[in-house]
Amino acid sequence: MKKTSIKNERSCTAFHEAGHFVIRVRLVPEKIREKISIKRRYGTLGRSIEETFYWDSEELEDYKKEILILFSGYAAHVEFNKKDQKRAWVGAEDDNQKAENLLEEMGLKGKKRIAFSNDLREVAKKIVRQNWKAIEEVAKELLIVEEMSGDEGELIISHIDGDPSAARALFEYRRFKKTLRK
Ligand SMILES: [Zn+2]
């Protein structure tokens, strides 16, 4: 494999994971986020998803949100690299399977299920675009550090949102992290 394609694959993974993360923060701000990482092999990512996959409510809105978060990985990958749809699809295999399981649980079948799923894919594309700046910043940071806590990811998002205290908090957080590494 050429060096450039490895580099590109890594970037795509970062955008995929950042997509999941940012949209999760937006849709379920009350939930605690696990760390976000690009350390694992592409296609077996989505660890933060796995760990927070359970919910207590069976309401439709919760299902929708969970499926939107699953679809946001693919949407962010494709938004970052529009020519890479095929690989993005392969990378999202796990997410798609989980989404199918949820649609099954919802009791959706046939054409109705396909239509519902396609609608949510369109919504995912839209919210990924609306949150692009934040996704980009989280992905960029992931490419440097490979792994970060949910707290750090949320600080990056707040910073992008214009929260004046977030920049300072982020600076302190990173300085603290550096002292741990020494
Ligand atoms: Zn994923």
List the helices and strands and how they pair.
Layout: H1 3-27, E1 36-37, H2 47-51, H3 60-80, H4 85-91, H5 93-105, H6 110-130, H7 132-145, E2 147-148, H8 150-160, H9 164-181
Antiparallel strand pairs: 1-2
Helix pairs in contact: 1-3, 1-7, 3-4, 3-5, 3-6, 7-8, 8-9
The structure holds zinc ion.
Description:
This protein is mainly alpha-helical. It contains 9 helices and 2 strands, in the order αβααααααβαα. α1 (about 5-25) runs antiparallel to α3, α3 packs antiparallel against α5 (about 95-105) and α8 (about 150-160) runs antiparallel to α9. Strands 1-2 form a two-stranded antiparallel ribbon. About 75% of the residues lie in helices and about 0% in strands. The longest helix has 25 residues, at about 5-25. It has a single domain, classed as Methane Monooxygenase Hydroxylase, Chain G, domain 1 (Up-down Bundle), CATH 1.20.58.760. It is globular, with a radius of gyration of 16 Å. It has helices at about 5-25, 45-50, 60-80, 85-90, 95-105, 110-130, 130-145, 150-160, 165-180, and strands at about 35, 145-150. The model is unreliable at about 40-55 (pLDDT under 50). Zinc ion (ZN) binds near residues 20, 45 and 92.
